[in-house]
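Worked Example 4.2. Read the sequence first, then its structure tokens.
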Amino acid sequence: MQVRPRTEIERTLITASGVTAAADTPSASRPRLGGISFLHRFGSALNHHVHLHACVTDGVFMPPADGAGGDAPPAFLPARSITQADLAAVTERVRRRVIRWFRLAGLLDAAAATDMLVWENSGFSNDAFRADRDQ
């Protein structure tokens, strides 16, 4: 099983952009997020602190319609404002998937996985910053 936080973030953005796609929609026709992520290996005090950063668009890109021509650009559909409840839901889904993957990969035993699932703060966080409203 592969853990794909992008899938959870993309699902949230698709919903917030007002797009619906049937399960049988070919992947080339589905809306997609735009983003980049990178591994950060140190904290603000230059201490060893490995963590991930990601920059993700606040909306999704719709591929051009079939027959639009090879040069047609995708359309960007902005998302409604992402709420704290949206962020909490994404964080929880990713947290549960990562803990499950760790358990299946043998990186956590059953007791440790169960303990982590009930922790109030298990080391997972999502933060959203919008330059147009948080300056």
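Now turn to a second chain, presented in exactly the same format:
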Amino acid sequence: MKKLVFQYKYVVTLFIAVIFLTSYRKAGPDEGKPAASPNIIIVLMDDMGYGDLECYGGFPYHTPNLNKLAAQGMRFTNFYVGQAVCTASRAALLTGCYPNRLGIHGAFMPWSPIALNPEEETIAEILKAKGYKTGMVGKWHLGQKEPYLPLQQGFDEYLGLPYSNDMWAVNYDGKPVTDPADPKSKYPPLPLYDGNKVIKEIKTLDDQSQLTTMYTERACRFIKENKSKPFFLYLAHSMPHVPIAASVKFKGKSGAGLYGDVMEEIDWSVGEVMRTLEQQGLTKNTLIIFTSDNGPWLTFGNHAGNSGGFREGKGTAWEGGLRVPCIMRWPGKIQAGTICNNMASTIDLMPTIVDICKTKKPAKKIDGVDIWSLLTQQPNANPRDEFAYYYDTNSLKGIRKGQWKLVLPNISQTYKKTMMGADGWPGKYASDSVKLALYDLRTDPGETLDVKELHPDIVTQLSAIADKYRQELGDDLTNQKGTGTRPAASVK
């Protein structure tokens, strides 16, 4: 009996000792951070199309790092931007709102009289209030000077261009514009900012070729410097927006022309971010979101991307303009190698990050929905079942609900009636008169077969949804002002 008691005491003592030692052992490289404060990285490309990545059918160049990111995370097939143009899309991503709710549309020029209102809350501001370190690298395009730059919108640090890399007084062949009659002569020098200060001017295509590497190095530095605290990194690449340029280490290496070189350098950049996370022991506690601001700018031909077979591209309300690739990875939280065919959007990132990071919600109304249920593959999850396609200043051009898309009568830019450009030069633009049409995106994702006569009940249902958006956000096509819109900031 005494022997049994002794053995029992020995086992209990050993069990307690194991627990004690386990509790106080040195933390591993991916441990030591609270689960409620994961790092968040958003990598946003510029004008990259749905079909540009190898894991979305892109070829003949290779994107192995992005293939790996997709294999380790979730790849979305019905992911939408807020609007198919630079500024509007970025405003949507950072605020969780349709851009027209914020009085934002189009692509700001260096002299634009409006900017994202500082009274709007960005993802950076929400996370900064939670104690996150916030950094942005790359293209901003929401206001070209103080007090509308990233440091005034929630970011602790910033390196990048205030707007698109083609907004400079340089011609499509890379030579300075000398003719005062040329519209491009109006552009001021293209500034590179560090914080609120201009540190350099981007003057040549050689300067452009350094942007991807410069952004990548700064992003990796930010990760290393903030590895001991939760951080939010917004890496918004200027490429593959024209003028495209690749550094010496990638130029001519893809065997698929300059666009292929640029895509392979972008892939390298993502690989460097992934490698830095791994080296710093941050992989398991970091959510990476990779996507694009809109579809490809098809008028530039071989210097433009691939719409993946969807209709049209950037600057339109067709699928090729708004449906973009999206990959999300968070080991242990998002199952590796999964595909999400449900609808989701960049406007859904804000509320999802709010949920994940347990932060306060934005004070003002937003349009995004929490898609955590999709990321965790909860049964029958479908948080976003409808989407409104706005373009121009505030024109409602379409409504999607489930598999159905109702296209409303409008005038649309089209790439189908003109020849594309080549080697950095654009083609000419054309417009098209669009009639009321209904498309079944499940069987006809290319929007080629109008089935409104077969489904009048669906047309009625989606028309009612369109009226709801018109009342809330307005619609220039029907001369309606929305009751839920807010003003942009007036730049002085």
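Notes for the reader: The domain at 39-385 is CATH 3.40.720.10 (Alkaline Phosphatase, subunit A). The chain is about 25% helix and 20% strand.
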